[in-house]
Amino acid sequence: MPNTIAVADGIFNIVDGKPVLLGSRCTNCDNHMFPRQQGCPRCMFDQQEDIELASTGTLWSWTVQAFPPKAPPYLGPVGDDFVPYGVGYVELPGQVRVEARLTVADPKQLKIGMAMEIVLEPLAVDDDGNTVVTYAFTPTSPGGQS
Amino acid sequence: MNDVAIVGIGMHEFGRHDGVSGMDMGVVAVRRALADCGQQWSGMQFAVGGSMDSGAADTMVSRVGLTGLPFTNVMNGCATGGTALSQSINTIKSGAADIGIAIGFDKHEKGAFRIKGPRGKDWYGGSGLALTTQFFGMKITRYMHEYGITQQTLARVAAKAFRNGAINPMAWRRTPMSEQEVLDSLMLSWPLTQYMFCSPGEGGVAMVVCRADKAKEYTDRPIYLKAATMRTRQFGSFEVLAPSVALDRNAGPTSDAAKAAFEMAGIGPQDIDVAQLQDTESGAEIMHMAENGFCEHGEQEHMLANGETEINGRLPVNTDGGCLANGEPIGASGLRQVYENVLQLRGDAGKRQVPNNPKVAYTHVYGAPGISGVTILSR
Q1: Arithmetic mean of pLDDT, A69-90
Q2: Residues B93 and B177 in one domain
Q3: Do B156 and B297 belong together in one domain?
Q4: Fewest Cβ atoms closer than 10 Å to its Cβ: which of B37, B114, B190, B365?
Q5: Residue ranges making up the domain that contains B36
């Protein structure tokens, strides 16, 4: 039966239809890293623990991918089927700034500092009919959490 | 330690050259650099060279001469040419050789660089995040937010580049373009339009370096190296192709390389007469003006409006049209900047000669994954 599957293992889990980003925390200096890695670039300590990163944050900077990326490596639709998408860094408070696709691609609707939350973003359908997804951030819906 | 001089320079025209390989362009640059100082390949005691997409540089010995010299290949992203030069300089300084040659060349496919991760694990490229253009859009978006730079200023940088390129016979893009035309061109990665970006391109540059005390044997107009530095990023800097960035902020490798270079040369930014700064896109030139120490953050807005970085301005920047007008063959780009400064210091820059009788010149390259290289030259 076709499923929803992550673009790769070890980047995020899918829980209740939402991505949960998988990061590392340095047990010596509290530095947060994404994706997971061993070895801390701040304090050079080599012991980190696996953590799940926050699902909400604020937009730190952004751009819009207005032309189709080369495929490979891009898995999404290209050519006439290409759909522009936003790209940004979302600051997860007290953790790290994570680079992500944004569900909004209209410059008028993107503002540094706006509240964002994480969602799944479909990229492609594989040969077995599975929907391949990545993570993205979307503006938090008015009135709080969606 | 020996002081170092540049005595011979050679370049193959930048641009698109169908039927000419990257290696062909490297060989042409080598022959021109040797001719510029009346030398033969057999006189070179060592070579350092690099390309990203055009093969191992050292294989060119089968065409320029199998003399048995030590030839080191280098690869350092956009700083490859600069690294070839700095390794050559260190070889002379150490006393290991008296004369040698630094070489850079490349030829890239059209369009943005294709950046692939490990096979089967490429979530980053697969998700549509492995584009250097996105980083440049996001870095300048943040910078405009923090320091009040406008999109008009981005267009001014590009228009200046194409004006300068138009009077540079070695440049790729030689048609002047108005600020409005730049603004109206295709939006690629907000706020950067098509003509605010440089394109991967083709070209080659080589230069012969030697012990400064022997330079007059090769040329009557040697140019002296006052500093050559290279730095990688420190924790907290915001760099290209980064899935995450720390909450800590760091000024980045450009500031580090610049400070080290000024210290090595014993001078400051106010002493520089002409500067070539990495302008992968318009925003990069603006941010690099401040990161290299030539102004405070935000001052670029009025500096550009007042024409202070034009060829006849207070601090001419990217007098040969920079990456925007020349394109970026990765292996050659850093050496192109040094080539231009040697011409400017010799007084040989023709229509784009800066009129301030320049004595000290500065180059800066930046590239993935967060590296910068700086040189300071004097006559």
Answers
A1: 96
A2: no
A3: yes
A4: B114
A5: 4-110+202-223
